[in-house]
Design a protein that fits this description.
By secondary structure, this protein is mainly α. Helix content is 81%, strand content 0%.
Amino acid sequence: MGRKQTIYIIYILNFLLALSVGIPAYVNSIFLKEYAPEKFVGLIFIAGSVLSLIAFANIPRVLRVFSNFNIIITLLVLQIILLLILSAASTLSVIIPIFILYWTAIPLISFSLDLFLEAKSTDETTGKTRGVFLTAANIAWVIAPAIAGFILTNGDYWKIYIASSLFTLPVLYLACTKLKKIKEPVYDKVPFWGTLREIYNRKNVYKIFMANILLRFFYSWMVIYTPIYLRENIGFTWNELGIMFTIMLLPFILLELPIGRLADTKFGEKEFLTLGFIIMFVTVSILPFITSTSFWVWAIALFATRIGASMVEITTETYFFKKIDGTDAHILSIFRNNRSIAWIAGPLVASVFLFFFDLKYLFLALGIIMLLGLKYSLTIKDTK
């Protein structure tokens, strides 16, 4: 199988993987709330993110011993088993540790697939290849909430995890049959803490790294607490939420490619990055003050928050790749996996916040936190 055909297969794998992860994504927090108090739900996500971070710090050594192919197959099999257990379990003592393992495995699988794409990519086509790879996942993320809302009309959470496991099966099959013959590079040991120091010393890389961390922080709060708030406080049904979240995520498909082209050809990333953080601040801050129970009012409000987020996502990606080269693989590995850092800090801060304030004011706090992004966006050296 040729290089292009292999890359197309990886695109399909990324789409199916994102669909598998996306279906339960906005259901997970409500599901966990059935077994743990609202204030402690975030701590469960923190535990999984801490384990992920530990795994990433040690993954170069594991790659050299077991190979990326064996790792991704093992993780996919484990993921299917964990999802099936979540679909059948009904006790706190089983659900919490199984969910933590499930949450740990997600970024590891994504990282493993990313390594296969890197092995088949060329420097000349990196931008195009990464753009299609990201778009494939975004399409799946838009579709996934609608599927979840359709499945969860009667509140049977087990159906969500069964569906997620079913979408993981073709990922496992394609990985087994199509990725085995990919020649893997020699994996060097990545100096994790030394790499963090290098990122800090390279000021523009550090600033875009921090902007991306803030974006992931935003995702952590919105993914965990938006479903809880809209379901428990506003009273939307799961069918309504599924359609609403699909509408909410459309900016990632509609805006990222044209903004990426404009950043390349006319404006650079600085302007869009700054505007994105301002839009996130304004749109998220007004959420606590919306008293309407109208489906369309909330759908439009959430859609607006993702206009800003899509701007920040595409500009942090494009700027970062313009600031590194082939000798910076160690920095790239940390950047790709900063999700774990954000998903530790985000739920931790939210859990403390909820001990003192009502859930709805979490969104006001999040909007204010997004203003920190201006500290980085306004001081980076633009590429145009």
